[in-house]
Amino acid sequence: MVSVYTILLVEGRKPVAEQLAPILTEEYKIATARTRRDALAQVDEISPAVIILDSPSLRFSCRRFCKTLQDSESDIPVLLLFAKDEKANHDVGARAHLQYPFSAQKLLNRVSWLLPAPDSEVLRAGDLIFNIKRRSVLRDDRESHLTPQQAHLLEIFMRNPGKILSRDFLMKQVWKTDFTEDTRTLDVHIHWVRKAIEKDTKDPAYLHTIRRAGYRFDPPKEEN
Fold first, then answer.
1. pLDDT (tens digit, 9 = 90+) per residue, 27-74?
2. pTM of the predicted model, to two decimals?
3. Which of these CATH numbers, 3.30.280.10, 3.40.50.2300, 3.40.50.300, 3.40.50.1360, describes 6-116?
4. Which of 3, 14, 29, 97 is deepest in the core (most CB within 10 A)?
C-alpha cells in the first residue's frame, strides 16, 4: 500500500537503470524535478513531506537550494545524496545524508526517518535524530539501535538539555534503584550511548562528563 506522503525527488538526467523514482514509487507518491526552479515551484505547489536531492546528478548548488528553503522558513526535511568519493557536507543545510552506493532499502529507511511523526516519538538536536518508539538513532548516514536502557538514558538527556544530571538521578530514573554505590552499569551504558551519537567518543560533542557531578547533554547552538 502506497503511503499518503508525497516525496519530491530532485534528480538530473540519468540512465534509466540508475533512476531512483522506481524504488520510491513502491512506497510513496512521487513528484520529480530536474532544475532548481522546477523544484522550488513543486515545493510551493505540493508541499512534499521530504525532499531528496541527488547531488551527483544535479547542475545547481544544493547549498543555495537549501538556503532558499531556510529563507522561506520551510521546515521540509531534505535528504542529500552524495557521491562515494565525497564526504558529507553538513554546511549544505540538509537534515540527513546518504552516500552512494546504497541499497534500495537503505534509501527507503532514510526517507521514513524524515517523515512527520508525533513530537512525543522523535527528538532532534543538531544532526541527531532519535526515534523513541524504534529506539533508533540517526546521525549523518549512520543508524544505530539502542537497548531499552540505553534508549531511556538518551531520552532523559535529550529532554534535559544543558542540565547536569547526577549519577544517582540517572540510576533511579533508568534502573529504579536507590543503590548507587556501584555505577559501573551506568558507565557501560553511557559508553554505548556515546558510540551511537558521537563521531569521536574520546572527544564528545553532545554527551559530556562533568567531574564529580554527573553528565550533561549539550545540543549544538543554533545559528541566528
1. 899 999 999 999 999 999 999 999 999 999 999 999 999 999 989 988
2. 0.68
3. 3.40.50.2300
4. 97
